[in-house]
Amino acid sequence: MKRKITILALLSSTLLNAWIASARGEDEVNYNLASRFYAGGGVGITRLSPDVSGASTKDETGIGYSLHFGYDISERFSIEGAIADLGDVTLESDSTQQDIGSLDYFQYGISGLGYFYNSQGFSGNSSEAPPYQLRSGISLYGRLGLSAMDISSSSSNLNIDGSPDIKLFGSGGLEYGWSSGYTARAELTSFSTDVQMLSLGFSKRFGGARSSISQAPHNAEQKTPPTSEAKKPEPKTPVAAPALSTDLDGDGINNNIDRCPDTPATATMVNNYGCHLDLAKLPAIKFQTGSAELTKKSQALLAWLARRLQDFPTTKLNVHAHTDGQGDTEANQRLSERRAEAVVGYLIAKGVSAKRLTAIGFGESQPIADNSTSEGRQRNRRVEFHVAE
After folding, report:
1. Residue 176 sits in the same domain as residue 287
2. For residue 353, is it within any domain?
């Protein structure tokens, strides 16, 4: 029991430190799905069927509880630590049919989770593409890890080795995530041939998607050393002033404060630290079929874009919406206008000033591909962001 309490205390302390680091590192976390801590717990039904010579179990099923904490490495992979009280099982003698004691199961371990399906898709985790996928929606995953099983006995009649038994274990699960960072999961885990658990759990992810650029205060105080009025400084021989820092990438930001020294010369959106946002590389904004209702994935992308635009407070954008050539021309024109207005409205709702945004619908008048093919029509149904002159 003392061992269980010690392990629980250590893991709880680690979990608390993860929460604090996540909160303090808010401005350090990048836009990628990675760099997000999460924590949660669960309850489930356990099956305990120990192989004890001369004894059998009275009831193999029980109730188990678990606590877990993890770290998202990418959209598809996470690492997770967990502890679980899997309950106990009573044994009876095969010869006398009398109770001879019970076994209590306590498990702790570490595992890797691989997500192989998400209902909203995966962005590919590219450094060029914003992570609009925040592991919301339905996900399917598999787990593989190492587990230490601590089994204690209530009776001296049961000869149980007190050292933890370390084994490889696996599981599969279904997870549903909300954009708020909360997730619910159902999982079937096999710790060994003797121990299995079917559980329901909840988690909370901390940190979300934030800027990878830690903005320094614009009005940082400049401290100057005190001067002595009693003694005038002695005149010194003039020294040539150092040359001003150069701007090698031509983005208008001197190298001494440029945090992105390789900004392309063609970049149109550069913030005070020399970092740019390439609007042409944003994933496609999508709508429900035949309407101006944004998909959930596109809402997440626009929410990310609204936060990112805070780094460019003076930039104004024109939002251009286009349709394919199918259907009535006037109806397509109206649809494109409504879609452009929907994008602008969503950005405004997320904190972007309305004075910085203009919605323009072009209907089917400016195709970029052949409307006679499905692929071409898909390319023509698009939203473009252009920096206003």
Report:
1. no
2. yes
49 & 138 share domain: yes
Q: Is residue 291 included in any domain, yes or no?
A: yes
Pairing status of strand 357-363 against strand 317-322:
parallel
8 A C-beta contact, residue 73 and residue 79: yes
The domain of 350 spans 279-387
Question: Which residues have CB under 8 Å from 322's CB, separation 6+?
Answer: 336, 362, 363, 364, 366, 367, 380, 381, 382, 383, 384
Domain CATH number, residue 188: 2.40.160.20
The rounded average pLDDT for each run of 10 residues, N- to C-terminus, in the chain (389 residues) is: 49 47 38 67 94 81 94 88 93 82 91 88 48 68 94 71 79 88 93 94 73 36 42 54 57 64 67 71 88 91 89 90 94 96 95 94 95 93 90
Please tell me whether residues 162 and 19 are part of one structural domain.
yes
Rounded to 10 degrees, the C-alpha dihedral 319/296/209/173 comes to: -160
Taking the C-alpha atoms of residue 286 and residue 147, their distance in angstroms, rounded to an integer, is: 44
270 lies in some domain: no
What phi and psi values does residue 241 have, to the nearest 5 degrees?
A: -65, 145
Q: Is 18 helix (H, G, I), strand (E, B) or coil?
A: helix
Last residue of a domain, one of 206, 222, 249: 206
pLDDT of residue 207: 61
Enumerate residues 6+ apart whose C-beta is below 8 A from 144. 111, 112, 114, 168, 169, 170
In 255-328, where does DSSP find H-type helix? 296-308
Distance from C-alpha of 104 to C-alpha of 86, rounded to nearest angstrom? 8
Q: What is the predicted pLDDT for the residue at 260?
A: 73
Do 199 and 289 fall into the same domain? Answer: no
* Domain-located, residue 223: no
Residues 288, 186: Cα–Cα separation, whole Å = 29
